[in-house]
Design a protein that fits this description.
This protein has about 190 residues and is an alpha/beta fold. It is built from six helices and six strands. Strands 1, 2, 3, 4, 5 and 6 form a six-stranded mixed β-sheet that branches. A hairpin with an 8-residue loop joins β5 and β6.
Length: about 190
């Protein structure tokens, strides 16, 4: 009988951290991006949020994307920051993302806003420029990394201190690490 209780308690303690983690998932609502271009790149209005969604979900966020057709149905309800925040509240989001892509010639500018649905803080602004749309995916990835500092409360690595090494110099160890000073700290990338 004691063995069964011990086994039951052991299984309970093993599953509790997983239940806690599941409750801590960050919920993000992404709205379609406006596209300003003479080349008719309107598909990017829905593609940019999908790229952002994929990266955020890879980090553990629960993401809802509203596509352009659904946004049109909402109509004027998405014209102001306050209306976007209200939609975020209605959808149970912790953060709302929206923005625009402007292309002039070959160059582009990607502008995004990130806001918490509650409160009256100004939305955080993220701007990235590029020379060619072939670099857009990497540009989005870098922008989402910056957003992660707010969304996931990530921190940047301030300093790497190598101690206890006797045979290999500290610089040799640092050169082989994936994470460096100034990088965003993620436990899965520490090596």
């Amino acid at each position: 009988m004691n063995k069964r209780w011990c086994l039951l308690l052991f299984m309970l303690f093993c599953t509790l951290p997983n239940l806690t983690f599941a409750q801590e998932n960050v919920r993000v609502l992404i709205l379609p991006f406006e596209v300003f271009s003479q080349e008719g790149l309107t598909d990017l209005a829905d593609e940019i949020p999908q790229v952002i969604r994929k990266q955020l979900e890879g980090e553990g966020a629960v993401v809802t994307v509203i596509d352009t057709a659904s946004a049109r149905a909402l109509g004027a309800e998405l014209e102001s920051d306050a209306q976007r925040r209200t939609l975020g509240q209605e959808r149970g989001a912790d953060h709302v993302i929206w923005g625009s892509l402007t292309q002039i010639g070959r160059r582009f500018s990607l502008d995004a806003r990130l806001a918490a649905p509650y409160g009256d803080q100004r939305p955080a602004s993220y701007v990235r420029d590029g020379n060619n749309l072939s670099t857009l995916s990497g540009t989005i990835s870098g922008m989402v990394d910056e957003m992660g500092l707010t969304i996931f409360r990530w921190q940047r690595v301030a300093e790497i201190v190598v101690t206890g090494n006797q045979r290999i110099e500290a610089d040799a160890i640092r050169r082989n690490m994936k994470t460096g000073q100034g990088d965003i700290f993620r436990t899965k990338s520490v090596a």
